[in-house]
Amino acid sequence: MGNADTKLNFRKAVVQLTSKTQPIDASNDSFWDQFWSENVTNVQDVFTLVPAAEIRALREEAPSNLATLCYKAVEKLVKAVDSSCRTQHEQQTVLNCVRLLTRVLPYIFEDPEWRGFFWSSLPDQSQSEDKEESLPLAHSLLNAICDLLFCPDFTVAANKKSGPDKAEDLQAIDSCEYIWESGVGFANSPPHYPAHDTARTELLKLLLTCFSETMYQPPVDLHTAPNKWIQYLTSAENRHALPMFTSLLNTVCAYDPVGLGVPYNHLLFSDSTEPLVDAALQILIVTLDHDTSLGEESATPDNLFINYLSRVHRDEDFSFVLRGFTRLLNNPLVQTYLPNSTKKVQFHQELLVFFWKMCDYNKKFLYYVLKSSDVLEVLVPILYHLNDSRADQSRVGLMHIGVFILLLLSGERNFGVRLNKPYTATIPMDIPVFTGTHADLLITVFHKIITTGHQRLQPLFDCLLTILVNVSPYLKTLSMVASTKLLHLLEAFSTPWFLFSSQTNHHLVFFLLEIFNNIIQYQFDGNSNLVYTIIRKRQVFHGLASLPCDYGTITKSLTKRTRKHLTL
Fold it and tell me: What is the largest CA-CA distance in the chain?
């Protein structure tokens, strides 16, 4: 009953705020404190008790009250930093302010008239005489969030035990000593507390909400109108930029969903780390995607997250990142005797984007991956997800990023050589059973994508075949299944109606012919299956050699087959 009463009090405060059209005095602390008191203890309650319709009504009918609510919430966070957020009550107040801002911010961003709101200054700051230039509200908020992410006994474990009276000053703390996880650039392994993980997750989700402002604006060039939230967080003005980047990276790469491997442990115990890893991964992707360095000379500061990522160079750091990446990417593929006995994580799409960014900004990491035997640990889950997503229109983006990663890897000789390793895994994929190498798996999955994938994947056919062209000189022994699939593709792509239906379709035939030529020229001895299949299907090549090219025959071919898309 007590819990219901406190929620009722919070709800009454919300109703009171949204029903008043007159401005409520900002100095009325007894009223405003209701919103971040201990009445509400989880984020779900805040989202339930503060409905979207009421936030929009507040924005339209009493904008000054909404502005004051945001000002007061940010002010509370700043004051918590000033007092080092040392007590349980202060920490609960911080979390409630964070939840409320996470709820309200999207409705501020969606209204163009409010776009500059967070880039104005706090009322009490604008009146102060000792500051030449007052701090924008957004900077105050971001500074407070970053300070709180390295707050001893709230989001990190204290290095030395001290009572609330001797808490460290958050604004003077060396956050490099409080990096969340050992790994890149940090050898110490700090103790883990679920409460710290939960607090970090809520703060990171507020950061993500701040970054989401771009979603509510018309598309513009990043170089002319950068996201100011991300720009500030990743600039030198954020003194926590390095420890924050390192904490996010290490948290993601050190995460092991299976742990000691006790069956069904994920059903018995809640995992506070997975939501944190998910949020950290999204923060990394969003910040690394904000690259303003390609534009013309401007006053835009460098993105330090990209800078730090590009400067990782030690082999042990690369090994740590790659191991973490392959562990998480292969997690959904793990097969056990007991059904559903191990935890499965579901952020493979974010992992692939992060891997792409890592390879893009750090070429040394890319070369490390290619010379490592673990490159196949990257290939197999990508092929699994490509095969699984091929018919789902909503996952076309996942298909693109997976194919682009393979295209990037296929440009290096070592990747092609590694494909000759026998494939012995038992991953559940709806492809023909075969005995062969990873190259056979690659060809079989690509054939499946081309023949049974969604029609929106047709622009990717060039990329898929380019990957096969790149690796073809190194493929020592193709199985009969893979050989048949390649010839099947040639047979389909060389039909007159398909060749003549688009001015670029003939490129696909060129790619396939180049694959055959490369294998015959460089790996003839071990590829008897392919040679046999080519001989058996020689009429396909004869048909290509005698392909009619007069206007009448072309028109006749096209009218006979009115289908615009390839269906096999």
Answer: 92
Cβ–Cβ < 8 Å for 170, 148: yes
180 close to 199: Cβ distance less than 8 angstroms: no
Question: Locate tokens 């939840």: which residue?
Answer: 99
- In this structure, of 164-178, 201-215, 219-233, the range with the lowest mean pLDDT score is 164-178
Cβ atoms of 116 and 88 within 8 Å: the answer is: no
How far is the C-alpha of 212 from the C-alpha of 222, rounded, in Å?
Answer: 14
Task: Indicate the SS3 state at residue 121.
Answer: strand
Q: Which residue from 359, 444, 459 is spatially nearest to 410, judged by alpha carbons?
A: 359
**Count of C-beta atoms within a 10 Å radius of residue 215:** 9
Instruction: Give the residue from 351, 365, 337, 352 showing the smallest Cα distance to 403.
Output: 352
Query: Which tens digit of pLDDT belongs to each residue from 386-427?
Result: 988 888 888 888 899 999 999 999 988 999 999 999 988 777
- C-alpha–C-alpha distance, residues 440 and 418, integer Å: 12
The kind and range of the H/E element at 99 are: helix 88-109
DSSP code per residue over 345-401: ---HHHHHHHHHHHHHH-HHHHHHHHHSTTHHHHHHHHHHHHHHHTT-GGGHHHHHH
**CA of 44: how far to CAs of 241, 271, 283, in Å?**
30, 18, 21
* Higher pLDDT, residue 65 or 168: 65
315-344 residue pLDDT tens? 999 999 999 999 998 887 765 545 555 666
Q: Is 105 helix (H, G, I), strand (E, B) or coil?
A: helix
- Distances, alpha carbon 43 to alpha carbons 5, 96, 142, in Å: 17, 8, 20
Size of the chain, expressed as the number of residues it contains: 568
131 pLDDT more than 50: no
